[in-house]
Design a protein that fits this description.
The structure holds 3 protein chains of 3 kinds.
Chain A (H helix, E strand, L loop, with lengths): L2 E5 L3 H17 L3 E6 L2 H9 L4 E6 L9 H10 L4 E5 L2 H14 L2 E3 L4 E5 L2 E8 L4 E7 L3 E5 L15 E6 L7 E8 L12 E5 L9 H10 L3 E4 L1 H6 L20 E5 L5 H4 L7 E6 L12 E4 L2 H14 L1
Parallel strand pairs in A: 1-2, 1-4, 2-3, 3-10, 4-9, 5-9, 12-13, 12-14, 14-15, 15-16
Antiparallel strand pairs in A: 6-7, 7-8
Chain B lengths: L2 E6 L1 E3 L5 E2 L5 E2 L5 E3 L1 H17 L2 E8 L7 H5 L5 E6 L8 H15 L4 E5 L10 H9 L3 E11 L2 E7 L3 E8 L2 E5 L11 H7 L4 E3 L16 E8 L7 E3 L4 H15 L7
Parallel strand pairs in B: 1-6, 1-8, 6-7, 7-13, 8-12, 9-12
Antiparallel strand pairs in B: 2-5, 3-4, 9-10, 10-11
Helix pairs in contact in B: 3-4
Chain C lengths: L6 H28 L4 H9 L18 H14 L1 H21 L2 H12 L5 E4 L15 E5 L2 E12 L6 E7 L9 E7 L5 E6 L10 E12 L3 E2 L5 H37 L1 E2 L2 E2 L4 H29 L5 H31 L4 H13 L8 H9 L2
Parallel strand pairs in C: 1-4
Antiparallel strand pairs in C: 2-3, 3-7, 4-5, 5-8, 6-7, 9-10
The chains are: A alpha/beta, B alpha/beta, C alpha+beta.
């Protein structure tokens, strides 16, 4: 029975994909099924509007070890579209499943829809320089970045939970030393307001300027790649860019940032982008809603003072 | 641990690509390069080969243009490069690429460790390594920031969004590496001059016994346009910065700053 | 003759650009500011096999050819003329001379350490108050048994103080004038050889320029380079080889300056448009672009002649002549385009202006390109 299938090892993301699945369901009357690998996830997703939830119970808790059983299930059920969360684990599993199914897979799709019995997607390529529209023949797999869709409400309905015992151990692989990455401060990926600093800042001592502005508008501090990777003035999880964080704040204020495409691709979802830079012709001004051409050492303190007054 | 293989891609340098007025892409002045993260994979292969005294070879699939990549690749510490230059790569998606690479690897022999970059600089689909592993029926370890070889096993440290994990694999494995795994050395002159003397070998797609269906892309590009954001682009140009700041704050108040202290 | 670079040359050029961007550019302003010899960068250049680029493999050279060498000089010059000058004086003057005129023993004794960068090379040619071509050298070399004893002062020794090996030009036969000058290989640590002072220069700061004192410096007779009396001929040809590389330096410096002016011209708004749209600015940019292009081709050509063992001295002189003209005019125009911004010491253009002068300045009274070209023409 062809269907729209959803999987993410992260149940929050799976609930977001459920929204996407429901959208697809509108144009093609297929059931929306979710694959879960934990009890809690299964419960949550069943309540969020999935028609069926397949709870895979294997011995190995390593999410990647489910790739083989997921592909068997999808083959058996003749899935037509598979949406997988584009977390790092999700991308890993999606590609393995796609290979076994000898199917096409689009990574990090921004949009996904049914068009003429195939799936049409859009995604960025060339480091964020270009946007590409692609058509994938069925069965089609698509990985979708977290927070692309809103989460389906946890009380949207009650689907059936089908438990499947599976064998997912692989004696060749041993997992060990799993340590959470400790974040210093908040996760900028979910921050509502962000103040971002680039190479326009001359020295580390001047970060104080940035901190004061961030405090004045209740924002998290982020940076461009050079500030963390080259200068180490901020930890790596603070840099926004194509190989760093992608953010979706209400407000982004960038200072001393030229606005190269590799950085801008990480802020494109911001509601309002403000830029402060000395170079009138800096690309950041093409990417901003509001801009001030000037020396950040002059402008930022003025801005901080003005915000503190409000 | 005897033989290492690195898969690399010869791509257009995205820095050279221009967006025309009508948003079409102008690749006329674009030069080719070894995809950035593949350089990290090659460097990792070279470092492991040097450390353990073993051989490291490379495999690349592209159009005829890949012939220009051989000396570049061989100057980076590789012993030999196998190249597949075929028109099929023009429209190839990750599905086709993985099918071709897997078939070639099956023909070339047993490799203990296959290294790939995390994703290519042009399409960044991040699929090649896991697909390859699935087709070869061996484990894949992706997003790796450190590799150690000990007691015939490969220990790979992965850096995932919220955690770090160590994966130990016995037997052949495919690993995709993060750019932070190493800093590729710039090849010295002697390495560049010696590249011409190192072996390279063509592998023909027609000799790999791949079904036509497996060479036909499942994902087809319909359009590619320059990505341009639609922003207000208001720049405050008063003589005094204080005035510009005032105007900025006023504009923000309308949209964003209603709730202070949130 | 093909002007297309080989695959190796293209890779070498690419790698040199990456090296210059990664390691030289970030240090360039500081090197200019302190004028200190860039020992760290030299160490990194050794790792890239830059110290023996065109020298034979049997002595540890990379055998990459003189054209590859000029490509590297150009790339280094884009980032720092001083760094390029350090390499140029070591390679085109010292290493070239030993490779060209050294005996088998001398090559074996000195080239490996030059190629591996254990020692930097330098020429000690000019003297305070003595004209080189006139053969009135005051640094004398007096034969004493199986040694020569050198006495006198040399000035403007590039890499002076940092070098491990000097090729010193001294008067062995005062009666013979110009034909009585000989070249000697002198180890920097030799007793009696000292650095009197370092000269604070206008540009190419970082390529140390020193005054050397020879106080009864005893040099083994085996260290005579070439025959007695051949000194001036050796210097003339080595300077010609250096002229080609100096041309590459000018190409690199002028190219960097032009790109800076272009970037500036696109940004700077006057009368509501970027100044790059004004014909006056465009004329200046067009002129320098054409000149740099021509000079680059001339450098490639002369380097190829040298590499192929063909006569190159006249072409090298043409490069010296042309580079001085177009290099200086390009930088004058760049400073003008950038106006106050360009004139400021904080910006890169003013350093490039000072450096290009150093690259084209005639090194000695032997450096008379017009005479060399005319001499060749009228022979």
């Amino acid at each position: 029975m062809p269907g729209i299938w959803i999987y993410s090892e992260d149940s929050t993301v799976a609930r977001q994909l459920l929204t996407a699945g429901q959208e697809l369901k509108k144009t093609t009357d297929q059931s929306v099924n979710v694959i879960a690998i934990t009890d809690e996830a299964a419960q949550s997703l069943a309540g969020a509007g999935a028609d069926k939830v397949y709870l895979l119970k294997g011995i190995s808790a390593w999410p990647e070890s489910y790739a083989g059983v997921i592909d068997e299930l999808l083959k058996k059920e003749q899935a037509s579209v598979v949406l997988i969360g584009a977390t790092l684990r999700g991308k890993d599993v999606a590609a393995k499943v796609a290979a076994k199914l000898q199917a096409g897979l689009v990574t990090d799709a921004l949009t996904v829809q049914f068009v003429n019995d195939a799936i049409e997607t859009t995604r960025l390529m060339y480091g964020g320089l270009a946007i590409c529209t692609e058509v994938v023949s069925l069965p089609a797999l698509v990985t979708i970045p977290p927070r692309t869709f809103a989460e389906a409400s946890e009380t949207a309905g009650q689907g059936e939970i089908i438990t499947v015992e599976v064998t997912n151990e692989d004696s060749r692989v041993v997992i060990s030393n799993v340590c959470p990455i400790v974040r210093e401060g908040a996760d900028i990926a979910t921050a509502n307001r962000i103040v971002c600093v680039g190479r326009g800042l001359s020295k580390q001592e001047d970060m104080k300027l940035v901190e004061e502005l961030a405090a004045a508008c209740g924002a998290e501090i982020a940076c461009t790649r050079g500030i963390s990777e080259d200068y180490h003035w901020l930890p790596n999880d603070r840099y926004i860019g194509i190989s760093g964080q992608k953010v979706k704040p209400e407000l982004y204020i960038g200072m001393g940032i030229s606005g190269q495409v590799q950085h801008v691709v990480g802020i494109r979802d911001a509601k309002i982008i403000v830029a402060i830079d000395t170079n009138e012709k800096a690309p950041i001004f093409e990417a901003a809603d509001y801009g001030i051409v000037g020396d950040l050492y002059e402008v930022v303190p003025l801005l901080t003072a003005a915000l503190q007054k409000k | 641990m005897q033989k290492l293989l690195v898969c690399y891609k010869w791509v257009l340098d995205e820095q050279d690509i221009k967006i025309a007025g009508d948003l079409s892409l102008d690749t006329g002045r674009a030069k080719y390069k070894i995809s950035d993260y593949d350089k990290n994979a090659i460097e990792e292969g070279a470092l492991l080969a040097e450390l353990h005294g073993i051989s490291v070879e490379a495999l690349t699939f592209g159009t005829d243009a890949v012939k220009q990549s051989l000396k570049d690749a061989l100057s980076r510490g590789l012993d030999k490069v196998y190249w597949i230059g075929d028109a099929a790569s023009e429209q190839a998606d990750a599905f086709v690429t993985a099918n071709v690479l897997a078939a070639a690897i099956k023909k070339l022999g047993q490799y203990d460790l296959i290294l790939c970059g995390e994703g290519s600089a042009d399409t960044y689909s991040q699929q090649t390594a896991p697909r390859l592993a699935a087709l070869l029926d061996i484990p894949a370890v992706t997003f790796v920031q450190k590799i150690t070889v000990a007691d015939g096993k490969v220990i790979a440290t992965r850096k995932l969004g919220d955690c770090i994990e160590e994966v130990t694999v016995t037997g052949p494995v495919v690993i995709s590496v993060l750019p932070e795994i190493n800093k590729p050395r710039i090849p010295g002159l002697k390495q560049v001059m010696a590249a011409a003397k190192k072996p390279s070998e063509e592998v023909k797609v027609s000799e790999l016994g791949i079904a036509a269906e497996a060479l036909t892309a499942k994902v087809r590009a319909v359009s590619r346009k320059g990505y341009v954001m639609d922003r207000k682009k208001v720049v405050f140009k008063e003589a005094a910065q204080a005035d510009n700041v005032a105007k900025l704050v006023a504009s923000l108040a309308q949209h964003v700053l209603e709730e202070r202290g949130s | 003759m093909s002007y297309a670079l080989t695959e190796e040359q293209q890779l070498i050029q690419q790698n040199a650009r990456e090296f210059a961007t990664e390691y030289v550019e970030p240090a360039a302003a500081e090197i200019d500011h302190t004028a200190a010899h860039p020992a760290d960068i030299v160490k990194k250049m050794i790792e890239q096999d830059f110290l023996g680029i065109f020298l034979p493999g049997e002595f540890g050279g990379a055998e990459a050819g003189y054209l590859s060498y000029t490509l590297i000089i150009e790339e280094l010059s884009r980032a720092s003329g001083a760094v390029a000058a350090v390499l140029l004086n070591h390679a085109s003057l010292a290493a070239y001379s030993i490779n060209r005129w050294g005996s088998a023993e001398q090559k074996q004794a000195y080239l490996p350490s030059l190629c591996q960068g254990e020692k930097l090379g330098a020429f000690a040619l000019n003297e305070p108050g003595a004209a080189l071509g006139a053969g009135e050298h005051r640094v004398t070399a007096v034969k004493d048994g199986d040694s020569y004893v050198l006495s006198g002062r040399k000035c403007y020794v590039a890499n002076g103080g940092a070098a491990g090996l000097y090729i010193v030009f001294a008067q062995t036969d005062p009666e013979a004038g110009a034909k009585g000058i000989s070249a000697f290989l002198v180890d920097a640590k030799t007793d009696g050889l000292s650095v009197a002072r370092l000269i604070d220069k206008m540009g190419l700061r970082g390529c140390q320029s020193a005054e050397l004192v020879f106080d009864q410096v005893k040099v083994p007779a085996a260290n005579l380079l070439g025959a007695e009396g051949a000194g001036l001929a050796i210097a003339a040809e080595a300077l010609a080889a250096a002229s080609i590389a100096e041309g590459a330096m000018v190409v690199g410096i002028a190219q960097a300056a032009m790109e800076d002016a272009v970037k500036y011209g696109k940004q700077r708004i006057q009368f509501r448009r970027p100044i790059a749209t004004f014909p006056a600015i465009q004329s200046m940019l067009a002129e320098m672009a054409a000149n740099i292009h021509m000079l680059r081709l001339a450098v490639y050509d002369a380097a190829s002649l040298l590499e192929n063992g063909q006569a190159f001295v006249a072409e090298a002189a043409m490069i010296k002549l042309f580079a001085a003209r177009i290099g200086q005019s390009a930088l004058i125009d760049v400073i003008q385009i950038e106006g106050g911004y360009g004139y400021s010491q904080e910006m890169v253009a003013s350093r490039l202006y000072r450096d290009v002068k150093g690259a084209v300045i005639k090194n000695s009274s032997l450096d008379f390109p017009e005479k060399i070209i005319a001499g060749n023409l009228l022979a």
